[in-house]
Structures are given as structure tokens and as C-alpha cells.
Specification:
356 residues; 2 domains; 31% helix; nine-stranded antiparallel β-sheet; 11 helices
């Protein structure tokens, strides 16, 4: 394939398409009637959602179950850029935090994560976020380009918010809920055999149960779902990508957009591992072909002919032309973290006082 950096410039023009959309049908490794365990979520504060699986009822016996969220999918795909064949295309920013080394590619809030913010990169990132808010995303692209691809909100500092250019979600349709029951049997009869004292105190018996000294039944807990179909929908939002700029410099803006497009194309054409969690191992459904379409603003759709290998080849060219930022290893700064906490406490106290 032609490796010229201008081969996708039509997508970056003002009248370019709205998005690239991939649709992949998936199935459990156990087969189409296999049991799949969706993600579970905590109950909402107002208890309108009681926790468990996120299943939306559509009426008429139809429903949609969330298997893997946008945020979860992003967190699965982003570390791709720390692998050998990809790592040279983005700055490898690593923070020494105690006994751990944490990559920015693994930080939940990306460039806005506390572990990055409370390091020697704090001022650099503050300036980069402020510049991005004013229309110059180049400084942020030199430090944390995947934050531009997968979205970032600097909610604890500058308030700069940049949308996700690549989104991916896995949903199951028309699911049947299952339940499961289990019985924990201890290795010995600790109370009956006098190894532990018998007690009528609930705190004591709860402690026995927690530590595995007595029988513990678990009945009617969520046991997964059987789905009529499972689908992964991934989108590269070209309309949002075209909003990125490097200030008033048109040449720098074009290089920036090409670079971010290269990263986004590489991300969206990469199919992440289907092993999502215990009980949820998905593979592509060979009976339903994958579709990859260019969606124009007037709604017309045409097949896209970009493979992952094509995307990676394009990325190599545009990354070199843009100039990948410097990789750095920095230390977590406890002093900055304490100041961050103190500032948050002061703001909370001020807000509380204002309400009175």
C-alpha cells in the first residue's frame, strides 16, 4: 500500500466523512448458546438501578445487555501502544510510584490521572491542557497522544475536556438471565469438632464465614446470560478529529491530524482480546462477516478498504513527519500529591460554607 502521508487527507478535509464504523458479530467460545457473564455495576445512589448487569428493557420481550463499556474497551485497546511493534509511535511516559512503574497508557484517566499529575510533568501537562482548550493540541500530542485518541477530561485541574475519537462497545441482544447457586464446604467441621468455639454472636459467625471456617451457601446470584446475538461496534469519529488543531498554523495542524488519524486507525482496526473476564471469552462469529464502512455526512455508506497492517504502515510515515514526543520516566511526587489533596479539601470546605 502507498505509504504517502497524504493518502487519507480527504478524510481530514472540511467536507470529509463523518466517521469510520466497524461492526463485528461475536459469540462465546462455548458456542452461540454458551453462557456469557456481562460486566457488573454498583447500584446507583438513588437505587433506581439496583446493581448487577446493565440490561435495558425495550419492550415486546426485547432487551440489550452491556457486555463491555466504552471506557472498558478503551482501557483494553490503549495499552496496545506499549507493545514492541507499536511503542515507537507514542512517547512512553512511565511513573515510578513506590515499588511500581505505571505507564500513562495504563492510567485510568490518561494524561489527567493523579499519578501523572503528581509528578514532575505537572506543569508541562497543565500548560498542554490549557493550550488544547485554546485550540492547540500539539503540546498534548507530544506528551500523551493517546489521550487525544481515547478522550480525556482534566476534571481535577484545568477542566479541559477532549472527546473520544475512537469508541468501542460490546452489547448482547435479547438475553435470557440465568442465576447460579453454590455451597462453600470447609475442609473441617471447625465448630462441631471443637476446633473453634460455638457462638451465637453474629459478628463472630460472620467472621467465621469470611475466613472460611463454616459452611456458606450462596443462592440465586447472577449466573450470566444467554444471548441471541453479541455485537462489537467500533467508531472512529472523523468529524471530531477534524476539530483538533495546532493553533493557526495550517501545516502543523495537518501533521497533527494525520498523526492522530494514524493512531486512531491503528486502534480501531485492532481487534482486542475477547477474553473480558471470567466466564466471558468471546470470538468473532464466522457466520456473520465483519463490516467496515465510511459513513458520509449525508448518510451514505461505502466499504472501507483499510486493514490493520495498512493503518500501521500509514502511522509509521505520519509519526515520523509529526515527530513523536520524548519518552520519559519520572517519579511520583508525594509533596505534589499532598498539595493536591489539601487543595481539594479547601475547595470542598469552601463549597460547603457557601451552601450554609
Amino acid at each position: 500500500m502507498n505509504t504517502m502521508t497524504n493518502q487519507f487527507d480527504e478524510w481530514l478535509s472540511d467536507n470529509g466523512p463523518a466517521a469510520l464504523v466497524i461492526r463485528e458479530h461475536m459469540t462465546s467460545v462455548e458456542g452461540k448458546d454458551g453462557v456469557v457473564f456481562p460486566a457488573t455495576f454498583a447500584a446507583s445512589e438513588d437505587k433506581t438501578f439496583k446493581g448487577g448487569y446493565n440490561i435495558d428493557e425495550l419492550g415486546g420481550g426485547k432487551n440489550v445487555c452491556l457486555i463491555d463499556s466504552v471506557g472498558s474497551q478503551a482501557n483494553r485497546i490503549e495499552p496496545l501502544f506499549s507493545r514492541d511493534n507499536y511503542m515507537n509511535f507514542v512517547p512512553q511516559i512511565v511513573v515510578n510510584a513506590g515499588t511500581r512503574q505505571v505507564s500513562i497508557l495504563e492510567a485510568g484517566h490518561r494524561a489527567a490521572d493523579a499519578i501523572i499529575r503528581c509528578s514532575s510533568l505537572q506543569k508541562v501537562l497543565q500548560d498542554a491542557f490549557k493550550a488544547a482548550a485554546k485550540g492547540d493540541a500539539e503540546p498534548l500530542a507530544k506528551i500523551a497522544p493517546t489521550s487525544l485518541v481515547f478522550g480525556v477530561w482534566d476534571s481535577r485541574d484545568t477542566q479541559t475536556k477532549l472527546p473520544r475519537l475512537v469508541t468501542s462497545t460490546i452489547r448482547a441482544f435479547d438475553v435470557q438471565r440465568l442465576t447460579r447457586s453454590a455451597q462453600y464446604v470447609p475442609a473441617a467441621e471447625y465448630v462441631t469438632d471443637g476446633l473453634l468455639e460455638e457462638s451465637a454472636d453474629k459478628k463472630v459467625t460472620d467472621a467465621y464465614a469470611a475466613k472460611g471456617f463454616i459452611h456458606v451457601p450462596a443462592s440465586g446470584t447472577p449466573g450470566g446470560v444467554i444471548a441471541s446475538s453479541i455485537r462489537r461496534d467500533a467508531t472512529l469519529h472523523l468529524a471530531a478529529l477534524r476539530l483538533l488543531g495546532a493553533g493557526a498554523d495550517k501545516e502543523k495542524t495537518l501533521k497533527l491530524r494525520r498523526y492522530i488519524l494514524g493512531l486512531a486507525l491503528t486502534a480501531v482496526t485492532h481487534t482486542p482480546s475477547g477474553y473480558l473476564r471470567q466466564g466471558c471469552n468471546l470470538v468473532l462469529d464466522p457466520g456473520v462477516p465483519r463490516t467496515f464502512e465510511i459513513v458520509s455526512n449525508d448518510g451514505t455508506r461505502v466499504s472501507a478498504q483499510v486493514t490493520h497492517a495498512n493503518a500501521l504502515e500509514y502511522l509509521a510515515g505520519v509519526a515520523e513527519a509529526f515527530g513523536v514526543g520524548e519518552s520519559k520516566t519520572v517519579n511520583f511526587d508525594q509533596t505534589l500529591a499532598k498539595a493536591d489533596v489539601d487543595e481539594a479539601g479547601a475547595k470542598k470546605a469552601k463549597a460547603s460554607k457557601a451552601k450554609k
